[in-house]
Amino acid sequence: QAKADGRNVYRFYHDELNKASIDKFNLLQLMRKALKNNEFQLYYQPKLQLSDQRVIGAEALLRWPQADGSMISPDEFIPLAESSGLIVEIGQWVLQQACLACSRWQQQGYDLTIAVNLSTVQFRDGKLEQQVQQALTAAALPAHSLEMELTESLLIGEGDNIAQQLSALHQLGIRISIDDFGTGYSNLGYLRRFNASRLKIDKSFILSLCLSERDEPLVRAIIQMSKSLGLKTVAEGIEDSATAAQLALLGCDEGQGFYWAKPLPETDFLGYVSAELMNEARTTKPD
Ligand code: C2E
Ligand code: MG
Ligand code: MG
Ligand code: MG
Question: ipTM of this model?
Answer without folding.
Answer: 0.98
